[in-house]
Amino acid sequence: MQKPTLPKGTRDFGPEQMRKRLFIFDTIRQTFQRFGFQPLETPSMENLSVLTGKYGEEGDQLLFKILNSGDFAAGLTDEDLQAGSKKLTPKIAEKGLRYDLTVPFARYVVMNRGTLTLPFKRYQMQPVWRGDRPAKGRYREFYQCDADVVGTDSLLCEAEIVLMVHEVFRNLGVIDFTLKINNRKILAGIAEVIGVPGQEGTLSVAIDKLDKIGREKVLDELRERGFSDDSIANLEPMFNLAGKSISQVLSQLKTWLDSSETAIRGVSELEQTIQLVDQYGLVDSQVELDPTLARGLSYYTGAIFEVKANGVSIGSVSGGGRYDNLTGAFGVPGLSGVGISFGVDRIYDVMDELNLFPASAGQGTQVLVVPFDTEARSVALPLLNRLRSAGLSAETYPDMAKIKKMLDYANAKAIPYVVLIGSEEVQTGMLTLKNMVTGEQQKLDADTIVTRIGA
Amino acid sequence: MQKPTLPKGTRDFGPEQMRKRLFIFDTIRQTFQRFGFQPLETPSMENLSVLTGKYGEEGDQLLFKILNSGDFAAGLTDEDLQAGSKKLTPKIAEKGLRYDLTVPFARYVVMNRGTLTLPFKRYQMQPVWRGDRPAKGRYREFYQCDADVVGTDSLLCEAEIVLMVHEVFRNLGVIDFTLKINNRKILAGIAEVIGVPGQEGTLSVAIDKLDKIGREKVLDELRERGFSDDSIANLEPMFNLAGKSISQVLSQLKTWLDSSETAIRGVSELEQTIQLVDQYGLVDSQVELDPTLARGLSYYTGAIFEVKANGVSIGSVSGGGRYDNLTGAFGVPGLSGVGISFGVDRIYDVMDELNLFPASAGQGTQVLVVPFDTEARSVALPLLNRLRSAGLSAETYPDMAKIKKMLDYANAKAIPYVVLIGSEEVQTGMLTLKNMVTGEQQKLDADTIVTRIGA
After folding, report:
1. Which residue in B3, B15, B394 is closest to A39 by CB distance?
2. Which end of chain A has fewer CB atoms at under 10 Å, N or C?
């Protein structure tokens, strides 16, 4: 018989990994909730009419499509069958798997706009699927954790996102990170000022690679894409802002981009956002203003955010921004919003590499109760009950086995405490509590054991 | 533009539903963990070679299949294309969506058996997909919450499941339920004793409908399936056990099924399980022994469990049993286990119908901070910070709007407290706390507000 395998690009998460992942999920969820974001879940499948055309041509190709149920080929003509994959697909598959959480959110808003209270703040933590070529850190199924507020253009929402990013990472124990912010209007203004108005898209795509390929290659790319030497020379001030304080950057941008109304609006939005953040009294702000921050997605129209953990070479762990037109693709125009997305897989990698998971995040069963014989169960089973009632994770070795085997089981599962119950223990009521880490043993009564382990 | 729709049989879960669902998930997860079950997650997609043939022919048809990525039709011959859906499917789809959590669990155990510590206790809470015809209470995407222990045949595991079922429902607040238990060996013994040895499968299928179609129709069905009048007459004692105590049922079964070794083993297993449950000191046991309980799945070989909530006509909310051969289909024989599955959708329906959700389960944002003007933000924003640091869910209305509009927002979102901050409040530091339920207003300082709302 063939050994079973996993589809490529997918993963099982065993107990230890899962406990750590749950720590991340719980932390993000709690923080979202504290900021007043409300939970939403949408189906894994969406109609392809909802998904197609929303992620560009490449995205369409990466969508996983679901074969229609039943006799999907009935009614197909020879012509249909021989028309090739692209034309055949819509005839045999009308559903696809969720590609991100934004399009389903937009679909939900459109379908429920009659009953939604605006501004609507929702968070969503669910897997998404992409038929990308699997690689290190790139999977075909992975989780996104998004929080968005739509129906308002108040910059207070941007400030709240800055606050929330700090909260999430601090609650996770990732203290050393950088939150870069920028504003798309500044990029648009730069394009104006250097003489390529409207070409901020091309500019963004190139600048987005600054970290990876360096300044010279970015400029080469712009030259190839038709930017004049003058335009490129005019870009100079952009590269001289690194390492400066937020107020320095803001004042230099005001001077440089003075002639662009759009840029000045972007600068002012950033300035107000920073002021609002200050009003909250944010301690140890990790915010950095980076006018070269572009982020690929073309639908951002205002603030852009990106978070990287310092001390590891792992890509961004969080990102987002403001968009003007969440629901336009579904015929409902004008809904502005701002959102942030946390990448659980990368956050996991960061925390794993930097050893940031608290011990409790990896902890499974806290105590193994070991009766030496069936007699001893009369003491062991009620004790299990009591340990669990006290909120502890407790189990017993179910078979009558040699003591060594049961202790091996405790060690293999990294259970820190074992309670040993033999005939003496049954008679005296004094049970043996063994600390599996130190090896220390003590005779204690059941009450003391419950409080000791719970402490 | 066409209005977007949901694929049939799928659902969005908005904030209120989600909060209640999360209450169910959290409660089940915590209880699983307290009993020493460890979390596992498997991919949504499995290779069809893993899924096919595991759920019977009907199940195979209900599997959602995923169209291969890229140019799936390349290389197909005309013959392939025209062979019809059934023969074409394996050539264009090699993956399918998870149909239950048991087969992926078995696959995981087989793939990781070199490193797993046995007995292995895992829980898994993930959605599954079935291309069933949608109906009331039947969806194409729904969650399963399973806990299983494999690698032991100790009846202590059955007892633990009985305990855990009680814990889960009590922690949910579903006090009035019935946990029916039976043993497949008893059903096998009945088949022997009434003269149709080995036909307990047919017997089970018919008896399974007892609740729905009544005794006479069950007997009709057995007659149709070739059971003799003698056999059917011999079934009589089975119908005379309802409403009797566990010990009465056990003793009548012992007499009736005395001639079947298998049955007597089943009776003894049940007896021992009940004794073990008693040893734990389970208070207010809801266990009922029902020798007519069959449950459809043919892979059960020992104990069978089924839970129904009393006072509502909603099907079983939980079920499970012991199986002998979890991994046989993957060429690894002999792994015995016992498991229990909780149906979140039905539990939700029960709790909703009986009004059992605690108020906290539906609660979103706890307090809305309302600054009347931008000045007031200097007080409002730090207050938001403090409320959140105290673990409260707090938000502000982001736009400068009329007070009525902001209070309407609080009411629409069922936010119980609002803090109003105008110029007087900024000057005096005494803020207005409004209870949105009673309408009561009080002037309090920030400290008092934080502790008052947190109480």
Report:
1. B15
2. C
